[in-house]
Amino acid sequence: MGEIIDVPALVRDLAASAGAEPGSVAPSKMRADVLALLKDRITAGRTAAEAMLFEDGSGLFCAARLSALQDEIIRAVYDFALERVFVASNLSSGERVAVVAVGGYGRGTLAPGSDIDLLFLLPYKQTVLGEQVLEFLLYLLWDLGFKVG
Q1: What span, in angstroms and rounded, lies between the C-alpha atoms of 97 and 90?
Q2: Among 9, 10, 52, 64, which one is least packed by beta carbons within 10 Å?
Q3: pLDDT single digits (tens) 123-145
């Protein structure tokens, strides 16, 4: 996946957009910086997937690459929300949430322009933290132009 997106660099750059200390960057600036960073990485990843498509001619491989790119973006945003935006550590089992890809995306074959179908598995009762993190994730995905189903 490194040829599509450099995950360690993405994680590092997301952390930098939040500042050295929690609350050291205004939320509106942090959000704008995160959006710009993610848009850049998504564009670069899609461009790389397209170039590989022209090289190998496999639409199935291209769809798998786009799916893997989406996985890394969602994983990075979710982790960023927990670690840098809401600063949650030592989560209880009641605060954990699973983000599950379904549909074509869940099968690892995401066609360009397809919906991002997600299922959120929650503990028996939703917590404020879980709600905030999922809301942050969804709004960011929508702001990036994804159709989330």
Answers
A1: 14
A2: 9
A3: 877 788 888 888 999 999 999 99
For residues 96, 140, 46, 120, the Cα torsion angle rounded to the nearest 10 degrees is: 30
Q: How far apart are CA 101 and CA 116, in angstroms?
A: 8
Tell me the residue range of the domain where 30 lies: 7-143
The sign of the torsion formed by the CA atoms of 15, 34, 117, 71 equals: negative
In a 3-state reduction of DSSP, which class is residue 93?
helix
- pLDDT tens for 10-21 read 999 999 888 767
3-state class of 35 per DSSP?
Answer: helix
Asked if residue 45 belongs to a domain, the reply is yes
148 within some domain = no
**Could you tell me how many helices (H) and strands (E) the chain has, helices first?**
5, 2
Residue 116 DSSP class: B
Burial 102-116 (b: 16+ CB within 10 A, else e): eebbeeebbeeebeb
pTM of this prediction?
0.88
In a domain, 14, yes or no: yes
